Amino acid sequence: MIREFYQRYRKSLPILLLVMVVPLSWWILTSDSLDKPRARNHEGQTLRIVNVRPIKKGDYLPIWQASGEVSPAEQVKVVAEVSGIISELGPKANPGQLVEAGDWLVKLDQRELQLQLLGQQAQLVQAQANLELEQANQELARQEYELVKDSIQATDKLNTALVLKEPQVATAKARVAAAQANLDKAQLNLERAIIKAPFRGVITSRLVGRGSKVNLSSGLFELVNTDTFWLEVKVPRAFLSQLDTETEVIIRHEGVWPSGVQRQARVFSVLPDMDSRDRQAKILLTIEDPLSLIDSSQPRVFVNDFLTVDLPGQLLANSWMIEPAWLMPQQFVWVVDSNNLLYKREVKLLFKGRKRFYVEGDFQPGDRALAEKMDIATQGMEVKPRQQSKSKRKSKGERS
After folding, report:
1. What is the three-class DSSP state of 2?
2. Model confidence pLDDT, tens digit, residues 263-290
3. What is the DSSP letter of 313?
């Protein structure tokens, strides 16, 4: 059927196509549907329809969003201070256990240390007895000296110290002091046979077991302090002048904590070295009670967690909030004034965030920011702002 139709009307097809194409081409050339939206003013001139956004002025607290990894503020390897064989492990001496400062973790076999202590006690008793003998001998020497001192020549008075046995007494006293020191050391070694937790924390690993032979400085446990964790984040160096170190920092664990759940940290210090890769400054934050052992309502923070941080800046009073795309390289913003005319407004950049800039500027009442790029824009050019739906007019709170 199609072939018969083609054979019958093939001579008329070019004419039919021409009749169809000419009106369609005329409609495309004269229609505004494929061009930018345009309107006409009261004089009949064509106006460009443009997108505009409100420019808001107020007191703004800029926030710089950063992220970083959690590390322990204090982490130690508990070591043996004396040699011996482990005879007993504490009830909390296991990985993951919370221990308090002073909780005992390991006991070494104390029999040899107790014998050493007894030996040092005997040495001290002997040294004290020798001292008493020397002091008695000195007293006898003093009495004899009193009887004969008037007959001693002046040249012999230099030997008085020897006559009174002062060097012997001094030596005996030194031996007593040394014996006392050895006794104190033996007592200390006996006390060190019981290894205790140096602070409140969680055991992360246990390196020994009962029957293990340990020497001086042998590693026994690894312990992390649970009072405070550190969080290191990086910020542009220019933000340091804006950073408010007194205000609490908001931290979040996106994708892990429920939506809206957050907790606080504090600025501890600004580290003295810049990051060698991106030349950003490094800030150290402290997170108190990270494992929520005191306040169980707080979400827990673990070592090596990767957290998002909102760092507060200094309050910017009476400043304007603009979007980065509005700021031209020459430090001005195109605005549509109350008469729908385009003008440049010079601005001074106060704070440069990721999503928002804060500036000082000579904006006038009725100014709206030109929210698109125009190929041709001149001062005083008349435009027609596009009507925005109510949903688009609602402002959304966004971080800087």
Report:
1. helix
2. 999 999 999 998 888 889 999 999 999 9
3. B
Q: Give me the helix-helix angle, 111-148 and 166-192, nearest 10°.
A: 170
| DSSP state letters, 23-52 | HHHHHHHH-STTS--EEE-TTS-EEEEE-E
- Residue 111: pLDDT above 60? yes
User: 323: which residues sit within 8 A by CB, 6+ positions away?
Assistant: 53, 355, 356, 357, 369, 371
**Residue carrying the six token digits 């385009």:** 342
* Mean pLDDT over the full length of the chain: 84
pTM above threshold 0.70: no
Q: Give Cα separations from 13 to 4, 18, 22 (angstroms).
A: 14, 9, 14
Q: Which amino acid is at 76?
A: V
Residue type, 25: S
10 Å CB burial of residue 120 (0-12, 13-18, 19+) is buried
In angstroms, the CA 176 to CA 94 distance is 44
Amino acid at 148: V
Name the residue among 355, 290, 366, 297 with its Cα closest to residue 326.
355
